């Protein structure tokens, strides 16, 4: 499915269906095929704009592009306009690349977690059949995405550890803007998901609210729910702007006391952080509940412009066999 370019070809949700839940463009048999990764695949879409169109009426569910229970997908040179749910939902896909795309989401739909890209499992998107798989071999790179409304820009997980382990997820060399409201973030993960092989590198992240977050990856930490997370590299990213949690990885503070660390082989290095905040909440980066982590060679500049709560350059809590070395930290109150 190919257009004549982002500025020449546009796919728009019909005005009569604007308020009706449903995916605008989706692969065939995503809702009926029972074979694992067996719905229609080997698909390439490119060179057009896709959008929900008019800002109202809005709906709750239904992505612009959806790929469910399939394999071998390429999405490139597409512009994602306003979307009430996701720009592209990767719902149980093996081997997919999303690259050279742009996006600006200004939708104020009922579903505020309308990430431009969601890395999902089968059954995770509107009307999809759940065949019990999650996505693997995912490559999201060289995109430019912005949102003025969504709670997150890149949403990882969205299916529990009991359904499967997301494998070989790669997100790199993207320019990402978001976090324009309190508790909104650029990267977000569902706390009950599981990963083996997650690489986030060379991304440029910018946020615009003192209560926002950048790369914020926090799990439950249970051996049976959101605790198996291993072989992760987060490196050479930049996070700038107004922000209270620019880079955080690990187990939720309410969970790590109850479970042993199940997060292993984590490397966080070469990231540059330059943020300020006026929030009343704490401001920090850090790692929590991790086994065998290398947190090294990061440059962290954090400034509190107002507020009364704590500011912590690097919070290191309940980790084992971990090293925090050669970081440069500057905090200013």
Model description:
Helices cover 0% and strands 50% of the residues. It is mostly beta strands and 333 residues long.
Q: Count up the helices.
A: 0
Beta-strand content bin: over 45%
Contiguous runs where pLDDT drops below 50 for at least 5 residues: none
Tertiary shape: globular
How much helix, percentage-wise, in residues?
Answer: under 10%
What is the rounded distance between the termini? 53 Å
Sequence of secondary-structure elements:
EEEEEEEEEEEEEEEEEEEEEEEEEEE
Extended strand count: 27
pLDDT averaged over residues: 92
Output the structural class: mainly beta
Largest sheet: 27 strands, parallel
The value of Rg in angstroms is 19 Å
Topology:
Blueprint (H helix, E strand, L loop, with lengths): L9 E3 L12 E2 L16 E9 L13 E16 L7 E12 L2 E4 L11 E4 L15 E6 L2 E4 L4 E5 L9 E7 L2 E4 L6 E5 L5 E7 L2 E5 L4 E7 L9 E7 L2 E5 L2 E7 L11 E7 L2 E6 L5 E6 L1 E7 L2 E6 L6 E7 L5 E3 L2 E5 L1
Parallel strand pairs: 1-3, 2-4, 3-4, 4-5, 4-6, 5-7, 5-8, 6-9, 7-10, 8-11, 9-12, 10-13, 11-14, 12-15, 13-16, 14-17, 15-18, 16-19, 17-20, 18-21, 19-22, 20-23, 21-24, 22-25, 23-26, 24-27
């Amino acid at each position: 499915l190919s257009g004549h370019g982002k500025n020449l070809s546009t796919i728009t949700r019909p005005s009569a269906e604007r308020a009706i839940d449903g995916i605008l463009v989706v692969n065939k048999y995503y809702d009926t095929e029972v074979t694992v990764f067996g719905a229609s695949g080997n698909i390439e879409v490119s060179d057009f704009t896709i959008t929900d169109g008019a800002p109202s009426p809005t709906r709750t569910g239904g992505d612009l592009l959806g790929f469910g229970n399939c394999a071998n997908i390429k999405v490139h040179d597409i512009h994602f306009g306003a979307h009430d749910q996701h720009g592209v939902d990767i719902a149980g896909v093996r081997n997919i690349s999303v690259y050279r795309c742009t996006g600006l989401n200004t939708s104020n739909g009922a579903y505020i977690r309308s990430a431009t890209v969601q890395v999902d499992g089968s059954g995770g998107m509107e009307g999809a059949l759940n065949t019990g798989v999650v996505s693997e071999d995912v490559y999201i790179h060289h995109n430019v995405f912005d949102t003025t409304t969504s709670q997150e820009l890149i949403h990882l997980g969205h299916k529990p550890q009991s359904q499967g382990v997301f494998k070989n997820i790669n997100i790199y060399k993207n320019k990402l803007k978001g976090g324009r409201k309190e508790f909104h973030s650029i990267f977000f993960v569902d706390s009950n998901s599981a990963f083996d092989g997650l690489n986030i590198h060379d991304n440029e992240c910018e946020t615009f609210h003192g209560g926002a977050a950048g790369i914020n990856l926090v799990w439950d930490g249970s051996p049976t729910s959101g605790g198996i997370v291993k072989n992760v590299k987060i490196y050479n990213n930049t996070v700038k702007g107004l922000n209270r949690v620019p880079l955080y990885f690990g187990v939720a503070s309410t969970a790590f006391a109850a479970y042993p660390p199940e997060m292993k082989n984590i490397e966080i290095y070469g990231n540059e952080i330059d943020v300020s905040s006026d929030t009343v909440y704490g401001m920090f980066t850090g790692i929590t509940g991790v086994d065998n982590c290398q947190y090294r060679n990061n440059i962290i500049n954090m400034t509190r412009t107002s507020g009364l709560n704590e500011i912590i350059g690097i919070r290191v809590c309940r980790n084992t066999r971990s090293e925090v070395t050669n970081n440069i930290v500057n905090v200013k109150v």
